[in-house]
Amino acid sequence: MGLLRIVKDMFTKTEVTEESFEYESIDNYLKKQQQEQNAKGPQEDVAYKCDQIVEATYQMEDLRVEYDMVTSYFEDIQTIEELPQNVRTQITDIAKKIAFLENETTQFLHSDDRISDENFRMIQGLEKDLTDIFGQLKELEDMDMVIRRDMTNLEGEKNAQEYIQETVEHRQGKLKNFIVVFGTISVLVVITLAVIGMLTKTNLVIPILLILLVIAGMAALSVVAYRNLSYEFKMAEKRENRAISLMNKVKIKYVNNTSTLEYLYEKYHVNSLRELEYLYDQYLIMVDEVRKYQRTTGDLREHTEALSKLLYSHGVKDPDIWTKQSLALVDPREMVEVKHSLNVRRQKLRDQIAYNDQLRLDGLKDIREMLKTNPELCEQVRREMEAYHINIE
């Protein structure tokens, strides 16, 4: 039974289908990698590197815009802190009135205690941009789910191909053992028949020839089977390498997407889009109650406008931010907290900019190295890079 099982395994082909290895959700340059090709040429590698450089450059541009905005907040703080004492006193007096009115409003609203004062002021400051913020967070969270799913699929594909390679190696070992055992037995049978024929002077040429024919047939089948196994192993190895290559590319997307999400969560003090939407819903309810409460006063708006005009007239670029953070203008400890939050945001932006800049430099370096080993591709590379508006110098 053992010998029959070896023969059966020897001619059993492992089912591997290319069609099951399809991914739709990562950008076009990932889709290109899933075509029916077993290897990539240098020109296709340049296209991927150009994609990498372009994406990293766009990321840096967006991050620098955000970095400049955070820096502008720091400059506003410096401007406020360097104002003459009489102006600072005016600002502090108005800010105290705003803080007092906001506290009264908060006490009125806390009959329901829907969201914290800090969250209320944050949503108030973001209100005009919330539609864009919701869209941005939804896009990033959807992409996060897609990337995680693709990474899981790619990891599964890699593991499947590793398993196929191990199975093929095991079957090759069994085939080698079978060849050795069958060859030894066959040689012994032929020698035995030859000796018997000589001793008994019996003509055993035909049986011996039949046995030799069977041996030759089994040898041919064994060679074919071993070649098929070798082909299966190479194909599985290529599919594994392709899965690993795609995983590396997806991980670049994952790092950028996750870093951006974490930054935005930190910026808006939430853990998800759903939480921000909940805060906004509660904010709308509270605003409606605030309007009812302030309908007979209007003082808060009057003082807010006065503070905004005063700050703007003394060089503060974004005074509306400070009308939502009046406590920071009154209490130095609150201003320290604001500075700390801005520092954390700026450091995260620096890290992301540095990561993408290194990604861009690595891409340019890889292209230069490729041209050293493939100088005949200079013209093709030049056209490819012109299409991406990339200067390799």
Give an account of the 3D structure.
By secondary structure, the protein is an all-alpha fold. It has two domains: 41-113 and 280-393, no CATH class; 131-269, Helix Hairpins, CATH 1.10.287. The chain contains 13 helices and no strands. The chain has helices spanning 2-10, 28-32, 42-81, 85-109, 117-126, 130-200, 205-268, 273-294, 299-313, 319-323, 326-330, 332-373, 378-387. α3 runs antiparallel to α12 (332-373), α5 (117-126) crosses α8 and α6 packs antiparallel against α7. The longest helix has 71 residues, at 130-200. The chain is elongated. The protein starts with a helix and ends in a 6-residue tail after the last helix.
Quick structural summary:
With 393 residues, the chain is mostly helical. It contains 13 helices and no strands. It folds into 2 domains: 41-113 and 280-393, no CATH class; 131-269, Helix Hairpins (Orthogonal Bundle), CATH 1.10.287.
